[in-house]
Please model this.
Amino acid sequence: MNHIKATKTQQIVKKRGRSLYKTYIYNLASKLEKAFKQSLPEAIRGILTPVLVLVITVPLTYIVIGPVSQGICGAIFMVVKALYEWGIVGGILAGALVGGGFGVLVMFGLHWVIISLALSNIGINGFDYIMASGGIGPMIGVAQGLCITLRTRSKKVRDLALPSFISQVCGVGEPLMYSILIPLKKPYVINILSGAVGGAVMGALRTKIYLFGWIDRICAE
Model:
């Protein structure tokens, strides 16, 4: 039974790996398109640009981007899974790693590996340990977004912080991260360190969640 559960989880993570490399492909294709439009003569630009983009990106997808993306996803999955199975010390390490590293993973789109694993655990086991730790950073981000909105003296920062705060409350953290936390640097570092501490506590206590989203904070055990 455990083998079946592990296999199902690995399949979910593998599928998520496939979706991750699409992000990198789109990014690469957009850069190539821009470069070709700037360098090719106008007479042949419209015809050759899409052809050259496809000729370059398709082989890279199968040879490099796809395997690397799935390898990264698989490595994250194995490390987190192994740590959580290593008693209370492993729980602390895994909680700190997931709690502090979640914001970093978001930058590269790799946080979906953690989310997929958590959803798989809830679907298969009825509960999950991982996002009990991983959700700490986003919750801290909500508080940071609100504080920055209320206390900043810069109108430009406030205009960015308010909608980003609302987005963060709704569970979408990228606007706050890219428009506020990373440019200001210090709040981003605080988010990572605080997430690591909170995640370690959650991991040490083996805190479980039974639902996914804001309601999981209420239903945590």
User: Anything to note?
Assistant: The chain has a mean pLDDT of 80. Residues 92 and 200 are 4 Å apart (CA to CA).
